[in-house]
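Protocol step 4 of 5: obtain the predicted structure for the target chain.
Materials: sequence only (see below). No template structures provided, no constraints applied. The aim of this step is simply to have a reference model before the mutagenesis design in step 5. Sequence pasted as it appears in the construct record:
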Amino acid sequence: MKGIAVAAAAGLLIAGLVGPGPTRAQQTEPEKAPKLTLKSVEAQVVTLQTQLATVNTTLSSLHPDDFAVVNSAGALNRGSASAVAASNVVTGGYEVTFNKDVSACAYIATIGDVGTN
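Step 4 output (structure tokens):
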């Protein structure tokens, strides 16, 4: 049977539910962590290596090496195989054409010497 126990001491009121709790036999033992074995650790290492290879493949597909070097006249000086053309569209503005969709890519431009490499 549950009830409420109330105790008052020096103006402090303490109340709580009182009732029968589980007996020792009814209490469950906490789960024990499984023991580590060399075989289980090796299996985890293989799983992590596979996951890392998947991440590396995904990252390399998200960041391909597409680039173009354009001279001041707007001509394509050199670039990756996917860079097929370039032009000067306005003073200081250049357009590079790639043979694939790059609309979801980030664009970075740096002013410098076109060089030969």
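Step 4 remarks: The beta strands are 3-9, 12-18, 68-70, 76-79, 83-90, 93-98. The radius of gyration is 35 Å.
Proceed to step 5.
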